[in-house]
C-alpha cells in the first residue's frame, strides 16, 4: 500500500539530473486551474541557471516545472535538465501538488481544494490529516471536502495516517466486535480476539478487562450503567427504618436483579437494553430521599404529582402483565 511518507514527504528522484530532449516530454497534469503564465515564463528566460524540472520516469510527464519548460522553449532550446520521479500517476499528482505549495508560483486556495478532491478520490484510505498535509489545507477543510465528495457512498472503516499506519475511523466498532467475540468465545486468547475484531492486542486486553468489570467496552461514560449494590427494596427499607442504636452484624445481601441485568452484555451493548436499564434504575429517587423530593414540589401540585406517580405505576403494571404472559 502506498503511504503518504512514500509519495508526499519524500521525493523519490534520482541522485542527479540529466539533459532530455524537450520533444520527449509530456505536458504536466498540473494542479493549477489556468494555463501557463507566459509573462512569468518570459521572466524566467532572463535567469541564467534554473533548477531541473521534475518528470515522471514512467510517463515522461512533467510534474513540476512547466514555466521553466516554457521558458526554455521560448528561448529556442531543444533540451532541458530533468530529475526523475519514480512512481505511478496518482503519486506523481500528489508530488506535483507538494512541489507547488512551497516554491515558484504557489497554488491558491481554490487550486489546493481541487487538488484535495482528487487526492480524496485517489486515496480514500488516507486520513484527513494526511490529505491536509499533502494539499496544504486544514484538516477541517479536508473533512468537509470528503463529505461533499463521497456523499452517501460507503465509507472505509480505516484510514492511513501520515505515518503510514492504518487506524479505524470509529474505534468503537472494533471494540464492540471484540466484546461480541469475547461473549461467544470466553476462553479466546487476546491475540485471537484481536485478530477476529481487527483491533490491537492492547485494545483486546482493555475490552476484556472492561467486560470482566461489568463496564462498557467502548468506554462511553454518558451511557455507562453502574452496578448497584442494594436492591430497591433494601434501600427503601433503610430510608424508612430508624438508625440502630448499636452496631449490628452485617447481613449478606440478597442477589440484586437489577445488578444482574446491568452486567448482562446483551443489555449493556444495545440501545434498547440500555434504555430499559435506565428506566429500571430508580437510585436517583432513593438516594435523595422521598422527603427531600417531596419538599421540592409546591403544595398546589401535590395532587398532580400523585396522579403522575400512579400513572407510572399503572404503566409498569401493564408492562409486568405483558412480561408475565411472555413467560
Automatic annotation (TrEMBL):
Domain of life: Bacteria
Coiled-coil intervals, chain numbering: none
Domain ParB-like N-terminal: 18-101
InterPro entries: ParB/Sulfiredoxin_sf (IPR036086), ParB_N (IPR003115)
Protein name as annotated: ParB-like N-terminal domain-containing protein
Organism: Streptomyces canus
